[in-house]
Amino acid sequence: VYEVVFPLDDIDGTLRSSDCNYGNDPTNAGDIAGKDSYIPHVSEGIDVEARNEFLCQASDNNGGNDLLEPQTAIIHAMALNADDAELVRAAGAKVIWSPRTNIDLYGNTAPVTLYHTMGIPIALGTDWTVSGSMNLLRELKCADEFNDRNLGGFFTDYEMWRMVTGMGAVTAHMGELIGSLGPGKVADIAIFNGATNADYR
Q1: To the nearest 10°, the Cα dihedral for 162, 127, 47, 113?
Q2: Could you say which of 13, 29, 56, 146 has the lowest number of CB atoms within 10 Å?
Q3: Cβ–Cβ under 8 Å, residues 86 and 75
Q4: Beta strands across the sheet bearing 38-42
Q5: Would you say the C-alpha torsion 110, 159, 75, 102 has a positive or negative sign?
Q6: Residue 70 near residue 114, CB atoms below 8 Å
Q7: For residue 73, what are the β-bridge partners?
Q8: Which of 170, 193, 100 is closest to 140 using CA atoms?
Q9: CA-atom Rg of the chain in angstroms
């Protein structure tokens, strides 16, 4: 797994709205070639500058680097519109949703109903503990509450469960080892009282 927090080499806080002149050593196609999983933090925010971060990693235009590949799983992806999402879908890339930190810092989160409707795989992740959840179960609770209060229950219990099991494994390119129970896989089992919450609840 190749995770990059500042793929644009913009750790100094550089913000751009229409070009890709960030740092001197941004992640490029050669850096991710041959990697099983590339997980960058991209488009964390709700403004034009956050969207520009995505655009600079979705094509070679304006000095950008096209890093949308099947092994790419974007953490955040908040400021994307439908055209941007189509680029993600067409590339076979994925999204890692971190609602708690997004809402705490920006008052909004990624357009996950759009992504789901378009068939973009979504996993759930905690981001970091400063503004995010302390563990994945807490992040799942946040996502569940957001789904109920703000999305009208758009995601089913099964779909939410998949975000923290099978889809998490898929985004990290580890589906052959983890994410579901099967012969030869690493077992990670939790048992709940089905009389309290039935099925995937």
Answers
A1: 10
A2: 13
A3: no
A4: 2-4, 38-42, 73-76, 94-97, 122-124
A5: positive
A6: no
A7: 94
A8: 100
A9: 17
DSSP class of 5: S
Supply the mean pLDDT for the chain: 95
Helix (H, G, I), strand (E, B) or coil at 3: strand
Q: Six-digit token pair at 25? A: 């050593």
Give the mean pLDDT of 52-61. Answer: 96
In this prediction, residues 44-69 reach a mean pLDDT of 96
CA distance 196 to 201: 9
Rounded to two decimals, what is the model's pTM? 0.94
- Higher pLDDT: 46 or 192? It is 46
User: Do you know the residue count of the chain?
Assistant: 201
pLDDT, one tens digit per residue, over 93-135 is 999 999 999 999 999 999 999 999 999 999 999 998 888 899 9
d(CA 113, CA 135): 23
Q: Are 101 and 128 in contact (CB under 8 A)?
A: yes
Contact 97, 143 (CB under 8 A): yes
At residue 183, the pLDDT reads: 93
Q: Whose CA is closest to 40, among 88, 81, 82, 86?
A: 88
Judge contact between 14 and 22, C-beta under 8 A: yes
Could you give the CA distance from residue 3 to residue 113 in angstroms, rounded to a whole number?
25
Measured CA to CA, the distance from residue 120 to residue 162 in angstroms comes to 13
Q: What sign for the dihedral angle of Cα 11, 75, 144, 139?
A: negative
